[in-house]
Amino acid sequence: MGLKCGIVGLPNVGKSTLFSALTNIQNVAANYEFATIDPNIGIVDVPDNRLEELAKIVNPQRVVYATVEFVDIAGLVKGASKGGGRGNAFLTHIREVDAIIHVVRCFDDPNIVRSSGPIDPVLDKEIIELELQIKDLDTLNSKIGKLERSAKAGDNKAKQELAVYQKYKEHIEKGNNARTLETSDEEKEIIRQLFLLTMKPMMYVANVDEASLHEDNAYVKALRESVKHEGANVLRICAALEAQIAEITDKTEKKMFLKEYGLEESGLDRLIRSAFDLLGLQTYFTVGVKEVRAWTIKKGSKAPQAAAEIHSDFEKHFIRAEVIKYEDYVQYRSEASIKEAGKMTVQGKDYIVQDGDIMHFLTSV
Questions:
Q1: What's the alpha-carbon Rg for the chain, to the nearest Å?
Q2: Calpha distance 192→188 (Å, rounded)
Q3: What are the pLDDT digits (tens) for 301-345?
Q4: Beta-carbon neighbour count of residue 258 at 10 Å?
């Protein structure tokens, strides 16, 4: 799909450690501000036990997972929207991603540099938030200035767009993010043209120490309280521990390591799946002896759009789709048994693909 999640945060909150663990890139950044200037990019598999179960049944030549692309964006600082700390470049990098993962420091460690006083995750969140809001206001003011003359001249389209932009401007000036403004679908379509930074979906990663692996500390509780009004997800992760887990390649050894810490899975696996969901993505599967594969589509995609992920001609020449639910495939274990049980359905162009559907497309190609 080509969609990206940008990882942002103030300097030295642990985001590059997290990115290193995600992508197994070592020494991404050192322990000082602006260690990351150009963004690092990594593509990682989305953990999915369903693929593994299907592979056990079919024994294919290969298994292909869905992927998520992560971009490690350099640490922002106060004043970034006005160019401070290479801010213009960093904000440009944020503009180019589709969703934002904001890493917030929720641990004490005197050995890790922090130039802005005592640990305060809410303040840290607000610093980043304010810089994005200021940049959005610059964008809106520039666009509003260009539209006002056309609107005064009677241009109805300009009047419509101007009204929407002014509505968002007023909302952001009150300290709100653009994504929290309730508007019509038509108004949302208009505002999307500006690619506002605070319009992008966002989740928060509370980077904690090992003592807070299983229960929110005071920092995490404060962060959750500060973002609950916008319904944002807060994921608690110990980036330092995840870096250790990521170095273990043997599955059995990794499972034992996780068990020692009372974990059923790594925080990275949860983060990757959450990022996939944040981007508004889901998967369907194709199953065969050559390949068991997860295909990435936007939630709400219809069957022809899903088929286009395999080949663009499949959408144009789509006839119908044969659909098997994952649970039925696992239960009956062969297409013949599934058909005999009446668990395969034939769907047309208006079928909305569900997450985990096993699909076979019939086309006129």
A1: 23
A2: 6
A3: 999 999 999 999 999 999 999 999 999 999 999 999 999 999 999
A4: 17
pTM for the full model?
0.89
Distance CA 222, CA 311 (A): 47
**Selection from 215, 242, 198, 256 nearest residue 8 by Cα:** 198
Q: CA 292, CA 358: separation in Å to the nearest integer?
A: 10
DSSP 234: E
**Tokens 């969703």 belong to residue:** 99
Q: Which helix (H) or strand (E) holds 45?
A: strand 40-45
- The answer to whether 302 and 350 have CB atoms below 8 angstroms apart is yes
CA distances 329 to 16, 20, 190, 283, 286, Å, are 40, 37, 43, 16, 12
User: DSSP state, 315?
Assistant: H
Q: What is the dihedral of CA 315, 317, 319, 325, to 10 degrees?
A: -30
Q: Taking a C-beta distance cutoff of 8 angstroms, is the pair 333, 57 a contact? A: yes
Asked if pLDDT for residue 266 goes beyond 80, the answer is: yes
What's the sign of the alpha-carbon dihedral 293, 308, 279, 69? positive
Question: Do 133 and 141 meet the contact criterion of CB atoms below 8 Å apart?
Answer: no
CA–CA separation, 179 and 167 (whole Å): 13
Residue 346 CA to chain centroid, in angstroms? 32
Q: What is the mean pLDDT of residues 216-236?
A: 96
User: CB-side exposure of 237: number of CA atoms within 13 Å?
Assistant: 33
Residue 149: C-alpha distances to residues 139, 144, 154, 160, 279 (Å):
17, 9, 9, 13, 37
For residues 204-221, b (16+ Cβ closer than 10 Å) or e, as one string?
bbbbbbeebeeebbebbe
Rounded distance, CA 102 to CA 125, Å? 8
Cα gap 223→227, rounded to integer Å: 7
